[in-house]
Amino acid sequence: MLERVRRKYLRLRKRLGYIQPIHLAAADKLNNKYGDFASSGVITIRKNAVFTRNDIFFTMGSCFAEEIRLALTSKQVACVPSYRNISFDPAQAIVDELPGREHMNFYNTFTVRLQIEQMLGLWDQAHDDWWQIKKPAPWGPICFQDPYRRLILAKSPEVLKEVIESMNREMRVGFDAATAFIFTFGMTEVFINRASGKVAAQKPLYRGGGGMQETTLHVSSFQENYANVTATVDMVRQHKPDAPIILTVSPVALARTFQDADVVTANTEGKSVLRAVLGQVSRERDNVHYLPSFELVTYGGLTRSYEEDLRHVKRSVVDEIVEQFFNAYFAPS
Q1: CATH classification of 23-85+102-124+170-329, choosing from 3.40.50.1110, 3.40.190.10, 3.40.50.1860, 3.30.1020.10?
Q2: Where is each GSCFA domain found (predicted)?
Q3: 315-329 and 293-300 are packed helices; what angle lies between their axes, rounded to 10 degrees?
């Protein structure tokens, strides 16, 4: 009887054009039938209390990683690295948006892996591995740019080296202090630095930077991204064998594509590759968990989930993701 009433109710809602609000919820039992999702509008995360409020989270990745970090810190959860501790003279260097913004973007699996390797001393940047560009700066029109971090500029190669070393030290301090890790990956279109063969941090000419002559577009594969994520997880495991790791796909869409393709098509392909990679890695590695933030945002619909630009996620949706992240993965206080 109750099932007949429920079906009649669902048919009526469908005729009236009712759209089910989509929510994320921690649960002991996951939805395994699409009908359960359709009738409830709930995407489930299995409860698994692996964190406490005393954990220190190392967050790295795309701009969505910053949103998660802001939401965590608003709940008085400690996050690292402390980018504002990076030492530099504003009269001689520009370090992304510091000191105002406590974040640095690493958009793809290549740059995250490279940053961890550099931080751990597994890769040393050559003394002449920089781009010389023309861009107005406090010290004059000539800048030396770090290819591997977003918009790091300096008056000279020597100053640039000092800034890079300070960044590596501060990131290592955060890494050593961390008891938990969150990595967010956003895109598969990357640009390879011709001189070194390594992936650059940002698209060419970002905010007047270099890269147009120095890089080549590369659309990375499942295998490449899988290798990067597993290498990153394994590096964390070598130093932090018991630290839980959360993996997410950034729901922030590509601002543009450099392929001969529609941006929506290219964005969907890239996000799908990353989603498949993170699912594979979370199945293969112990204590590695996938957070379905991408699913909540995309299934929630453009107008509910995104700001007016239809790219960046609304603060209310980010807060819901973090709230259910807490409900699923944090032990009760």
Answers
A1: 3.40.50.1110
A2: 57-325
A3: 140
